Each structure stands twice: as C-alpha cells, then as structure tokens.
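Fig. S4 source data, part A: sequence.
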Amino acid sequence: MRFVLRSVRGLSLGALSLLALAGCEPAADQVTYYEDVRPILAENCLGCHTDGGIAPFGLGTYEEARIVSERMMNATAARIMPPFLVDNSGDCGEYRDAAWLTDEEIDTIAEWHRQSNPMGDPSTPEPVITARPVLDGDVRTLDPGVEYQPGGERDDDYRCFLVNAPGEGFVTGYQVHPGNAPIVHHVIVYAPSSAAAGEAAVALDEGQEGPGYTCFGGPRVDAAPVVLWAPGGGATNFPRGTGLELEPGTPLVMQIHYNRLAGDGPDHTTVDLEIAPSATPAYIVPIADPSFALPPRMRSVSSTNEYSLAELPITVRAYGTFPHMHTMGTELRVERIDGDGAMSCMTDVPRWDFNWQLAYWYETPIEITPEDTIRITCTWNTMTADETTTWGESTQDEMCLNYFYVSL
C-alpha cells in the first residue's frame, strides 16, 4: 500500500503551525484511483458492481467510484462490503477465495476519499483479475423449466422451485446462471432428507398458484443445502475428491431470493452441477440451538447449545461452514472444545446479514474427534418483536444454525 504519513516527529506545535501557514503542512502520499483503488475494486467488487450486476450502482470507472467514495469508505470500514460475513482476520481460521479486504486496503479507500479522489494516470495498465473457477467433467443442469415473475408488495421475494435430481452420483461442484442477474440475490439448492420430505415439497408446490411456492426462511421441509450461491463468484468446487451423494428419485428444491431494488422483470435461473460417479462421501451436518425463547424488545439476547461428540465413531474433517439465522440475528459463533478443555474457533460471524447467505471454505480442514464438544452461540436484536420469538421457518421466527461440510 502506498499510503504512508510523512513523519513530523520532533516538530513542536509552533513549528507545525508555521509550516501550515507557509503552505507546507505535512501531508499523506497521494492515493489515486488508477494506481491504488482500481486494483482493489477489480479484485473484490466488480463481480457485483458492474453493468447487469446485482449491485444498484457500478464501480467500473473512475467517475462511478468517485461519486460513491464516501459510501465505499463507510461500508468497507464497517466490513459491510464486500459481503464476506465470517471473520477472515486469522482469529477464527482462514478461508479460501475470501472476498475480504485487508486493513491496508480499507485504509487506502478511506484515504482516497479524504484526499478528494485523485484520479492518477489513466494509462496505468488494467489490473490482473484472478481467473474465476470453472466446472469440468460431467456437468448437468438443474432447470425449473419456467420463467417466474417476482411480485408482491415487498422488494424481496423468496421462491422455491422443484427440479428433478440429475440421476445417481456425487455432486462435486456447482455454478449458478442467473436468468435476470440484477434481481437474483442468492440461490440455495436443498436436497430433501427423505422421500417423505420430497413429497412434502411437492405438496407445497401444488398448493400454490404459479411456478414454485413461497419459502422465506428455508425450503419448509426437512432438507440440507447442496448449493449456496451469491453473486460475484464463478463456480464452486468442493474439496478435491469429496462429494455429496444424490438420492435418486427425490426432487431437489431450488430457493431463489429475488431483490427488486436493482431491477424487475421475469427470471429463469439454472444451476449446473458437476457430477462424479464416485467420491469420498461428504455430508452436510447441522449444528443448531433450536430451543431458544427470545423475549421481545431486547437490543441483545443470546443463546448457546453444546453437542458432545462422544458417540462419534472416528475423527472427521470439516472443510466448510454455512451459518444461518433470520432477520433479527446479529452474531453467530461456533467453537470446538477438545478433551483437555482447550477452545478453538470454527466459525465467527460478527455482523450477520440475512441478505447474504454464503458458503465458506477453510484453507485447512479442521479435524473433529470423539473427545470434542461443539458449542454454538447466537445473538439477536428483538427490538422489532412484540412477542417471544422461537425457532421456525416464517418471517416472524428465528434460527440458530450452522451447517458443516464434513467427510469421514
């Protein structure tokens, strides 16, 4: 980073005042758009903040970035943007493909705004953008087969569509192709846990007019996620050699969150699944606290649950983490307590945002043994609630849930 304050150590206040009167007051090195800011935006922001992207404004040109520089400074300082919710500072693990700004990058954006947005040299070579991952091998497409027009009075519409599972095999990766990119905010594909859960999803679908059915908090049936996607990335590849086995004959549930603040019109989103005939079986394992009862009108209220793993037959490896709460959630944390009582962090979400439901993949898998205890703690702000809030699927309910992607 080029931003370095010039040293004024040793100068008295009187000397500093004279320097200022002479027009020589100490200043920071100039931070410019083309040399300093554009590479940060290209690497972390332009997947969404571009023409046709989900973001309501672009950041691809100097002028676009200049007029929102204060918003960028505030959003990055608060780590609201980029929307990478888990802590990637190193205090709670590190994650691959992390859209996480360093402190130096955040300071660069702030200083650019404070310096009134110097342009720099437009002939500066375009920044090199890391190639997005792609799928290869046997790729099969999940297609609802219809267009859907999001509607209703709210800007957000959550709709679940039933899609046929692509036959036998293991899902080893996925890629989402939004049909109407500006309004497709996230996509989650769920695999029902049983034939009965699949039949329940069919009944929900048949019970509502039009394509699919309304599904705010989740699929409204017992199911685990297979795909978790938000805009800005390419394909997601599961850890090498691992995969999620599909149950033949059971439909999958594709939940799409539409946000109409950035556009309107119908959508026809599809999802590609990479299928392998064999793989080390992986499992989506939930860790939850389903028994909380949250009093209303509380700025902060927390609940904790612990899972003893004494009945676990062998050590397993956790490759990824998928936190989930609803709109009153503010924080989520999962910790591992080993047999000696030592505690280590597995997932830390210091600023939960229901609008960004993502999968996060560890740089190094975490081993979990039969001697371990897993603790999940969630915190909510219930100031908008008039009654006690408990676990449930609806808008008025809440959840305290973290899935782990594990293999034996």
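Fig. S4 source data, part B ends here. Residues 1-27 have pLDDT under 50 and may be disordered.
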